[in-house]
Amino acid sequence: MIRNIVKIDEKKCNGCGLCVPACAEGAIQIINGKAKLIADNLCDGLGACLGDCPQDAITIEKREANEFDEQAVVAAQQAVKPPVHGGGCPSAQAQKLAPPSKTVIAGTDAGPSQLGNWPIQLKLVPPTAPFLAETDLLLAADCVPFAYPDFHQKYLGGKTLLIGCPKLDDVEAYVEKLTAILIQNNIKSLAVLHMEVPCCTGLLSLARQALAASGKDIPFESVIIGIKGDVK
């Protein structure tokens, strides 16, 4: 039959594996470092995995394919084994980190790390990441932690961190990703930290666009960090 089905561009795919948990049917696996559609009858063609691909390697095409089979999906899910990274990128696996240690890092005056999630790059974080549930979200320009010396202790503690650069990254994709995150999760608050330079205000703009598009009424805060490390 002719129907919609997922198409994966192996030239674009970097094997990050974010599409695997995004596919509830288990139709995608990482094989030899690339995402593969393992069986046509496991793919419903709805494209839930599209928004989780940071490389835009997944599209929907219309072609001849076996009919979607819900029973085959159930059988595949029951037979699934613990995930193995087949040459993909384990460093991009979404994970909630343990509470920070109270021990000061030896040889430094720094306090303990307050980072509670990984990954932190907005481009790599799927909207379904478990650490996004019931959280206070901190969206920071990626220069902020370098410019502000007390970033961890003053702003990061107890929050889920996402970072990006509105000048060098794809802002439109960021708006779509952040909108999906806000819609699919119970985000308790959203704070945006950006640099005082004009181009960095794009982060604030995209956050406001995403918040408006989500239709949610979430407490919102904006903080401007000066290039000399002060709070404006």
Overview of the structural elements:
It is a single chain. It is built from six helices and ten strands, in the order βαβββαβββααβαβαβ. The protein has helices at 19-22, 70-79, 144-147, 151-156, 171-184, 201-214; strands at residues 2-8, 28-31, 34-37, 58-64, 95-96, 117-118, 135-141, 160-164, 187-195, 220-225. The strands form four sheets. The chain has a four-stranded parallel sheet with strand order 8-7-9-10. A two-stranded antiparallel ribbon has the order 1-4. A hairpin with a 2-residue loop joins β2 and β3 (34-37). α5 crosses α6 (201-214). The protein is elongated. Mean pLDDT is 86; it is low at 81-88.
Descriptors for this entry?
232 residues, alpha/beta, Alpha-Beta Plaits, Rossmann fold, 2 domains, four-stranded parallel sheet, 22% helix
Draw up the topology in text.
Elements: E1 2-8, H1 19-22, E2 28-31, E3 34-37, E4 58-64, H2 70-79, E5 95-96, E6 117-118, E7 135-141, H3 144-147, H4 151-156, E8 160-164, H5 171-184, E9 187-195, H6 201-214, E10 220-225
Parallel strand pairs: 7-8, 7-9, 9-10
Antiparallel strand pairs: 1-4, 2-3, 5-6
Helix pairs in contact: 5-6
CATH architecture of the largest domain: 3-Layer(aba) Sandwich
Radius of gyration: 20 Å
Oligomer: single chain
Q: How does the helix and strand content classify structurally?
A: alpha/beta
Main sheet summary: 4 strands, parallel
For the record, give the distance between the C-alpha atoms at the N and C termini, rounded to a whole number. Answer: 61 Å
| Global outline | elongated
pLDDT < 50 stretches: 81-88
Q: CATH topology of the largest domain, anyone?
A: Rossmann fold
Estimate percent helicity.
10-25%
Strand line-up across the major sheet: 8-7-9-10
CATH secondary-structure class of the largest domain? Alpha Beta
- Percentage of residues in DSSP E strands: 15-25%
Number of domains: 2
Give average pLDDT, whole number: 86
Number of helices: 6
